[in-house]
Write a structure and sequence with these properties.
The chain is of the alpha+beta class and 320 residues long. The protein has nine helices and 16 strands. The strands form four sheets. It has a six-stranded mixed β-sheet with strand order 8-7-9-6-1-16. Strands 2-5-10-11 form a four-stranded antiparallel β-sheet, with helices on both faces. The protein binds ligand 2P0.
Length: 320
């Protein structure tokens, strides 16, 4: 009746933006991501307490805003006729700030809930459960470099490269630790209804996936850099042209982008990607990490830096 799981967030290089089914939370496009080993969420679940409602504590503070989604996730994994749970979550990075905390949180939660109930589960079932609550969480069920594909009524995840085959580094420049103004879920639904670029975004995803997949297969950093930056800016173009517009960047985000472009000019293997938030993620090779950190630290508006290599799939332990 008790279990703990630890899971890593992931960042997409080929992004998910938009849903083809909002009820089942099925993404409109395939995506490809890096699981970040240096960042984690630990999730403890206790179903043995005879509570009269679910209780959620995040980083030591009782949380109400996220409780509904957490309860829905437990209903999905365990069933609606379940005992109420106490859920204690701990995260070593800012949450709801464009650092994919929902991917590590909901992947950890489904793994912990299955472990607590001693349910038979497999990778695809865990991904389907996590993805129903948070599209990006499905990708955190695997480590390394992960692809998410849309199959008619569900999703499938696949590991393209394990955490050690091509050890990439990610330097994260945090430019604002506050929570974002609009959730990605709300924003992508607005985009699908109002951005004139949305249909082009959907239509052009498959060539980007193909290019990125090939780049991973060949460990071709330059090709992965080019297609990832292109896909990221395409997603942000859809966001910017949404009505009302969704602009997650701030001045430091843009300054970091320019700094990364300058580093590329002098031959540094590095590229940027940004998600539903103002933080910049610079993907590089481990041997270049120190130089990238030094450069991004100098940018006005960068409040802190985190770094990560690629990480593994979630782990869990039952009967604490
Ligand atoms: C991604 N994002 O591929 C994209 C890029 C943000 C920008 O997946 O609505 O919070 O809960 O399924 O899981 C946002 O992820 O979205 C997201 P929902 P979620 O990583």
């Amino acid at each position: 009746m008790q279990a703990m799981a630890r899971s890593h967030p992931n960042i997409a290089l080929i992004k998910y933006w938009g849903k083809r089914d909002t009820t089942k939370n099925l993404p409109a496009v395939d995506s490809l991501s890096l699981t970040l080993g240096g960042l984690w969420t630990k999730m403890k679940i206790d179903l043995s307490l005879n509570l009269d409602r679910d209780e959620l504590i995040i980083n030591g503070v009782i949380d109400e805003p996220n409780l509904l989604r957490v309860s829905q996730c437990l209903d999905l994994v365990i069933g609606k006729n379940r005992k109420f749970a106490k859920i204690i979550s701990e995260c070593n990075f800012p949450i709801s700030a464009g650092l994919a905390s929902s991917s590590s949180s909901f992947s950890a939660l489904v793994v912990a809930a299955n472990a607590a109930m001693k349910k038979e589960s497999n990778t695809q079932l865990l991904a389907a459960q996590a993805g129903t609550i948070s599209g990006s969480a499905a990708r955190s069920i695997l480590g390394g470099i992960v692809e998410l594909n849309n199959i008619s009524n569900t999703i499938r995840i696949k590991q393209l490269s394990n955490a050690t085959r091509w050890p990439l580094s990610v330097v994260i420049a945090i430019t604002d630790k506050n929570k974002k103004n609009i959730s990605s879920s709300q924003a992508m639904n607005l985009s699908s209804r109002s951005s004139p670029f949305y249909s082009a975004w959907i239509k052009n995803q498959s060539p980007d996936m193909k290019e990125a997949r090939l780049a991973v297969k060949n460990k071709d950093f330059d090709k992965l850099a080019a297609v990832s930056e292109h896909n990221c800016l395409k997603m942000h173009s859809v966001m910017w042209t949404t009505k009302p517009s969704v602009v997650y960047w701030n001045a430091a985000t843009l300054n970091c982008m320019h700094a990364i472009r300058d580093l590329q000019q002098i031959g540094e293997p590095v590229f940027f990607t940004m998600d539903a938030g103002p933080q910049i993620k610079a993907v590089c090779l481990p041997e270049n990490e120190t130089r990238i950190i030094k450069r991004l630290t100098e940018i006005d508006g960068v409040v802190s830096i985190m770094k990560s290599g690629l990480g593994e799939a979630p782990t869990s332990s039952a009967d604490l």
